[in-house]
Amino acid sequence: RLYQIPFGMPNCEDESEARTLYLVGDFSAPAEFFVTLGVFSFLYSMAALVLYLRFHSLYTENTKLPFADFCVTVCFAFFWLVAAAAWGKGLSDVKAATRPSALIAAMAVCQADGVLCNAGTTPAMGLANISVVR
């Protein structure tokens, strides 16, 4: 929800007053889907572990239970692939929206003649990139 994050920019005509720039975009849905699926996968794997260890005889006697377990695991694998792709796209959109050159282009104060705006440092996205790789 980038639209909730304000940036204070200086006003070159009147130094005491600052304008506020709001980013554009809401990329929370892919992230929420990714995290929700991760939580459900964890809960299912814990339940399956209890089933395998505690109720091993029930699992081996019933032929439908291993097949149902296989089907649920395949569904989780498919949705994990979809969630990772959605989060990867969402992350690339967040990177594009927060790129320093895009932020400078959105600031009206930087468009005036004789004004030189510098981004300073680039945002560190290493941990976000790792979350997509997992």
UniProtKB/TrEMBL annotation:
One GO location term (cellular component):
synaptic vesicle membrane
PROSITE patterns from the xrefs? MARVEL
Tell me the domain of life: Eukaryota
Q: How is this protein positioned relative to the membrane?
A: Multi-pass membrane protein
Q: Where in the cell is it found?
A: Membrane
Q: Where are the transmembrane segments?
A: 33-55, 67-87
Primary localization class, coarse: membrane
Q: Where is the MARVEL domain?
A: 1-134
Instruction: Write out the entry's keywords from A to Z.
Output: Glycoprotein, Membrane, Transmembrane, Transmembrane helix
Q: Which Pfam families match?
A: MARVEL
Family of this protein: Belongs to the synaptophysin/synaptobrevin family.
Name of this protein: SYPL2 protein
Q: Which lineage?
A: Eukaryota, Metazoa, Chordata, Craniata, Vertebrata
Q: Which gene encodes it?
A: Sypl2
